[in-house]
Amino acid sequence: MANAPAIATRPSRQRSDTYDSSQRPKRSPERRRATVGWLFIAPFGVVFVIFLVAPLGYALYLSLFSKGLATGTAFTGIDNYVKAFTDPAFLGGVWFVIRFALVLIPVQMAVSLALALVLDAVTSRFARFARLMIFLPYAIPAVIGALMWGFLYSPTFGPLQQLFDLFGGTAPFPLSPDNVFGGLMNVVTWQWAGYYMIIIYAALQGIDPSLYEAARIDGANAWQVAFRIKVPLVSSSLVLILVFALIGTLQFFTEPQILRLVSNGTIGPDFTPNIYAYSQAFAYANFNYASALSFALGIVVFIAVYIFLFATRKRGSFLS
Amino acid sequence: MNKKRLLAAVSAAALIAGLTACSAGGGATNAKPTNCTNKIVDKEAPVVSVWAWYPNMATVVDNFNKAHSDVQVCWTNVGQGGDEYAKVQTAISANKGLPDVVMIEADHLPAYEIQGALVDISKYGANKVKSNFSAGAWKDVSQGDAVYAAPIDGGPMALIYRTDVFAKYGITTPPATWEEYAADAAKVSAAGGPAFGDLGANVPAALMALQIQKGAKPFEYDLADQKKITIKLDDQDSKDVLDFWAGLVKKKQIGTVDQFTTDYISGVVGGKYATYTSAAWAPGYLTGAGVGKGESRGVWAVAPLPQWDAAKPVSVNWGGSAFAVTSQASDKKNAAKVALGLYADADSLHDGWTKQIIFPLNQDVLTSDEFIENKSEFFNGQQANKEVYIPAENAYEGFVYPPIVVYYYAQLQAVTVKINAGKLTGSEAATELQATMVKYAKSQGFTVSE
Lengths: 320, 450
Hints:
CATH class of the largest domain in chain B: Alpha Beta
Number of strands of chain B: 13
Oligomer: heterodimer
Number of strands of chain A: 2
Distance between the termini of chain A: 30 Å
């Protein structure tokens, strides 16, 4: 710090020999621009601090205390975190969402990539219509979508049972303990594939068409253009989607929470880590442990995303 | 440049103003509540805020406000059951935001009592109305001499059954014991009939009541010694009841669908279930859900709840709510006046029971000729009150619920799912429950006796 003024003055003195008159007015607008910059950031900054930083800080503070129904609140340090990472209900939930992510993300990626490649290759009125239709599920609020699937899955009202009735069988219940994995995966893929498709599609539109021309002149067929040219060029969007999907899946909440009511109890209060934290806070009056669970989940998400970005660091250009 | 700067400053200021306005809105408990659903009749009188979800609450509140000039009710419906409890619990944790009077089901009272959120209203004249209620109903809202709420409605349990299904499969008298219930279930099942009943995982309160009927004492708790709790979930009686239902599920003689769902109700309408083991509010609920109309009209009847020992019948209760005064109420005396007077007048009670919204606990109603002699439309003219529900309510002895009942219900629900999936027997479920609940109670700081 002591050296700082010396460094700052030296160049200005050197310059002052030549640009003496213009030096002073030049610095002032710069500073003013900085102030104005801060002002422009202020609305965002205020919202950011009040709705993100402050609640996070408060949750962290809460998570360091414990409150039992029969005891008062006491400072317990990291006890809640130790408890969380040894709590079978929390670990079970984490294990579920990790398994879910491992299966869901490749499926979702494959579906959205395939759709985007097809829509990119076909240019007709039907393609534009199809693009809209595929995107539509994303425009439906997750709650409405989940409610709708609840009815589609219903053994009484759903089309599944009617289909099986034709052959005189009993339809499997997509939300039974054995089927719930697939049942939920279907809902989430339906909801998000269209959105990811649009991201990939936008990236595909940004590719210079002369590259395709060059490839074709070199003798590449349509498949080769798709897999050797298009896919590598949109790989950064794919990584972006993967990170979105990974975070979204680890924080899985809305769909299971809504379908819980029609799941015959398959989806319990500890089904995913987020639902568990919600139950702890609002059903069992345990805000401290719920805060700790939220942070513990944050740690899991951070580790998962870090591992993922590390593994794809060569292609993951959007964060580096 | 200056214009932009001004704009930025203004927008930032506006944002901050908006934010502070938001946060100011939440606090202010002492100011007169203004967002009432109802109209305040006497604008000079002090106002007591109330949360409640009875469907005829608007009428009830108007009745109260018209009859009182010393206090007025400001009522809001913030959701039913769990939705309201989530808000109540949040307000308790935040130490602000509770109304003065809140509607709470009897089984949920101790969870709030132990947090010091409710006021003992015995010092505000609660004991003056004690004689209006059965001993069981009063015990449900009390802890020793302390009274934490004024009971409104209850749910003495009984066996609702379909006369058409019973006639078709040759069952002449409804089962009086659980043994007969199982025998009838086997009979209907063998003849290729519908499910005899249903073990819904989402009605743990009903299952607990059925365990208590057999003689189980799942919890013992005394608020005076609030760190001690006795948990006995794996005694023989509890196991017997769970094994009984698990056995029926295993033999596929009863259904395993969650209740209060469209799937279940459509099954009830369509004759998929021969019986419905439920409480006195069930006819009203079913009517509201569309049962008892069209194809399911005039096929319903009700019989007393089957017994384990016909010589020593035991009456149990499922559901029913009460009005409690919160410790955040600014004027507890006025709040108690509301808790004790709201839904306690003859007009409101009459409106409630004739519309099948409540099964009233007030003895003035239970002993009135009109109520006793009433011919239920849902039960095809059967005098259900006289024959079944009033005797059941009067025989109800009450139960002291534990402060950890919400967690217990969630665990009971979880094991019921496993029973329904054939992954646990009833006895195994009881053992698992005992271990989970003891662990939880200890983590909450209780000294647990098993």
